Amino acid sequence: MSGKIRDALQSTVVPGADTQELGNGLTSYRWLSYRTLWLTTSEGVVVFDPLNRAASADIAAHLKEGGQPLRYVIYSHGHRDHVSGADALGGHPIVLAHRRTAEDIRVRGYSDVVAPTETFDEDEHVLEIGGEEIRLIRLAGAHTDALVASYFPRRRLLYAVDLVWPGQLPPPGAPLSYSGVERALDRLLQLDFDTFVPGHGAIVKRQEVIRYRTFLSDLRKEFVAALQRRGLNDLHSASTFLAAPEQLGSVFFEVIDALKPTYGDWENYDAAILPTVQWCFWSVLTGD
Ligand SMILES: [Zn+2]
User: Which of 78, 138, 208, 277 would disulfide-bridge 166, Cβ 3.0–4.6 Å?
Assistant: First the structure.
């Protein structure tokens, strides 16, 4: 059965789900707004975030067709919306996560998140399976304490969850540190990759990650420049605090107007730009 026909059939079974072949055994799986991967090798299958029970059951049905045993499940971080339901994948995989992610899962005590069976503590952990090298890179302080990006050097492909929303602003309320995301992206952009697979949204080229990183820089620059034009050079000084409440509103809207010509075509610009500027404001205020 061709991939296209199978995908069409699949989407009738699980509405909102589809797969995309990325070549040489790597498959991207989308479930509504979520995206994960699995890798089929001669030594078995690696599933990345299991997402949830419904998605995992669907992934298990796909894996059954391939006939290879499930060897690993790799968690990107401890948030339940990405890592619940691994029991529905079946088999007896090693569930691998960073030690801090395992702690996070234990503390939260979710009944539907399978606890990791193996952990690593280093900031970069290499998994070799079936001739494939997967580098798990910890990005501290960006989204959680131990968000892990998965890098496939031979494929020049990077999978990172809850860090970049290509062509979109981050969803308001997501637990993100502005400067932590900047640092994480600077680290990831040192890697040699062409293809970027996000945990939400479409698979894109490296250029889109650069564009997202540039947006964060542009926002910070515009925000600081608008403050300086009003003589608000140090947000911690008493005089700034006295002047700021009257002026901050106009600072916010000046920044929004300045960014609009370049980023106004992003999907959720009008809905999400104000909270995004506020997010930058907290970063400038707290130095984080
Ligand atoms: Zn998350």
Answer: 208
